[in-house]
Amino acid sequence: MNRKPLLNRMVLVSGIASLALLIGCEGRASAPSPGPRPAPTNPVPTIATISPNGAQAGGAPFTLTLIGTNFVSSSAVSFGGTAPSTKFVSATQMTAAIPADTISSAGSITVTVTSPTPGGGTSNSLNFTVTSGPNPIPAISVLEPGGALGGGPGLNLRVSGANFVASSVVRWNGNDLPTTVVDSSTAEAQIPASDVAANGVASVTVVSPAPGGGSSSPAPFTIDGGESPQSIAVDAAGKFVYVADGSGDVSEYSVDATTGILTPIGRIAAGLSPRSIAIDPSGKFVYVADFGDNGDGEDVGDISMYSISPSSGALTSIGTISGVPVGGGLLGCPDLCAPTSVDVDPSGKFLYVANEGGPAPTLIPRWTVNSTGFLTFQGTFAGGGRAISLAIDPKGKFAYATDDSNSFPGEGNDVSMFTVNATTGALTFTGTIAAGTEPVSVAVDPSGKFVYAANSASNDISVYTINVTTGALTSAGTVAAGTRPISVAVDPTGKFTYVANSDSNDISIYAIDGTTGALMSVATVATELSPAAIAVHPSGKFVYVANSGSNSISMYSIDATTGALTLIGTTGT
After folding, report:
1. Which of these ranges, 4-13, 73-82, 159-168, 393-402, has the smallest mean pLDDT?
2. What is the C-alpha separation between 427 and 404, in angstroms, rounded?
3. How far is CA 328 from the centre of its chain?
C-alpha cells in the first residue's frame, strides 16, 4: 500500500490547523497592536489683560499678572525680548517676576506668551508702558521689628510702605543703610549691632533720588531694655522665647537648640501693663493679657494678638481685643477686667483669660481662635472668686484657676475647677478646693494627673491629684517653698517641678513622685532680683526665669537625672 499520499495529506492538514490559529474566530486576521499615542498638541495662547500695564522708569521690581486663555505649564512670558521668571497659575493666569533693570528707561515694552511644540506658538502681544517723570515721594507704614534690645545683635529691618523705587535707600538717623528694594511697597535694610548698642529712639526714613523723589516721614525705632518682666513662654518647637514686660511690650528671643542660650531678636509693643503671655500649640500665634491698670482706678484690660514669623520668630501685631473701663474692676465686667493670666487649650481652638478685676464670682472669658490667629469673643464663665492664674490640662478636658483675693469676704485661697466642652470650649464650674494663702500660680503636670499651686503668702506649694473622669481635685498635701513663691512650672517629662520665689531670689527644685504627685525637695538655685515667672524648654533641657527686679532672663541647664539647675547665662529684657 502506498502511504506517501496519506502522509502528505497529514502534513497539509497540520499546516492548515496552524494557519487557523492566525485567523479570527469569525474568519478575520488579528489586528496588530496599536503604537504609542501621539503627544497632545498645545493650543496657541492668548492674552486678554496684563496687570499692571505700566510703570515709572527707574521703578522697583514687581510681579506682572497675565490673564488670558490656553496657558500650559510650559508656557513662558516674554517681556520686551527678555525671559523673566514665570509661574503658571492656571490655564487662564500666569505671573512673571519683572526685574528693575528692564524698566530703567521710558518706552513701550511688548509682552507675549509662547507655548512650545507640538502645536503651541506665540500669543498676541500687549504693550507695557514705561513712563518718565519724577520719582514719587516714598512713605513708611510699618517697621518690622518695631524696636530692639539695647546691646543686642545686628538685625534685618523690613520696611513696608508705598512708592519705593529701585534706587530708594533706607536711612538710619540720616545715614544710608545697605538696602534691598523688594518691590514698590517693601524694602529691607541691614542694621549693624553698633546702631543698637545704646538705648534710645532712632529715626528711620526712606529716600528716593531725583528727579522728584525725596524723603518719607520718619518712623521711630525704639532701642531699650524691657522693664519688670512679668511672664515668659517658650514655643512648642523650642525655637523662640517671648517675655511680657511690665513696661508695655514683648521681648523676643531665639533659642540655640544645643546650648539653650537666648539671643535677642527684637521688641514689639503690647498693651498697658502686660501680665501674662501664651503661645498657641501650633507655634503660629502669641497672646498677651494686658492688665490695664492706668493708675486712676480704671482697669481697662485687653488681649494683644500677634503672629510669629516661622523663620525669624519676630512678632507682627494682628490686633487687640479691648475691655471696658470698670472703675477699679469692682463695678461689673462683661469680658476683660484686669486680666492676669492667659492660656490656649491644647487643640489651639480656644483661649481663656483669668480676670482679677471681675466681680465675685470671677468671669473667665473664652474666645475662639481662627486660622489667622484672631480671636472671637464667645462668653464668660463664673468661678469661685477672682481668678489670678489659669491652666488647662494637657488633654483639654479640665481647667483650673487660683483665687488669692482673700481680702474680700467669702473669697480667696482656693482653686476653682471647671470641665471643658470639647466642641464649644465652654467651661462648667464644678466647685473649689482649698489652697494655701494667696495662691498666685497654677500648673498641671504633662500626664494630666497632678496640679500644683504656688501660695505666695504661706510660702508653700499645694499638691493635688486629678480625678481623670471628672477633673475634681483631691488634696495631696503641701510642701515648703522659698519666700513668696510666685510661679510654678513642670518639666515636659513630668519628673521635676520648678518654683520661682520672688522675695528669696531663688528657684525651688522638686522631684515628682510619679504615683502620688508628691514633691520631694532637691535643691535651690539663686536667680537675679525678684524672679516673676519661670518656663521650661519643651526638650526638658533648659529653664528660663524672668527677673522683674533686675530686668533680665536667667538661663539654666537641667540635669536629666536629678533635675538640678546650672546657670548658663543671663540676658537683658
Report:
1. 4-13
2. 21
3. 33
What own/partner pairs with CB < 8 Å and gap ≥ 24 does 227-230 have? Answer: 227/551, 227/573, 228/532, 228/548, 228/549, 228/551, 229/532, 229/533, 229/546, 229/547, 229/548, 229/551, 229/552, 229/553, 229/573, 230/274, 230/275, 230/276, 230/532, 230/533, 230/546, 230/548
Distance from C-alpha of 138 to C-alpha of 169, rounded to nearest angstrom: 10
The domain defined by 139-224 folds into Immunoglobulin-like (2.60.40)
Tell the CATH topology of 229-572.
Methylamine Dehydrogenase; Chain H (2.130.10)
Helix (H) or strand (E) holding 9: helix 4-20
Q: Nearest Cα to 165, choosing from 202, 139, 189?
A: 139
Q: What is the pLDDT of residues 284-341, one digit of tens each?
A: 999 999 887 554 444 567 899 999 999 999 999 999 887 544 333 333 455 567 788 9
pTM listed for this prediction: 0.66
Specify the DSSP class assigned to residue 326: -
Rounded Cα distance between 390 and 404, Å, is 12
Instruction: Of 162-166, 277-281, 491-495, 536-540, give the lowest mean pLDDT range.
Output: 162-166
Of the options 1.20.950.20, 2.60.40.10, 2.60.40.1120, 3.40.50.2300, the CATH number for the domain spanning 46-131: 2.60.40.10
pLDDT tens digits, 216-253: 999 988 787 667 899 999 999 999 999 999 878 899 99
Whether the link from the prior residue into 211 is cis, omega within 30° of 0, is: yes
For 480, the grid coordinates are 515648703
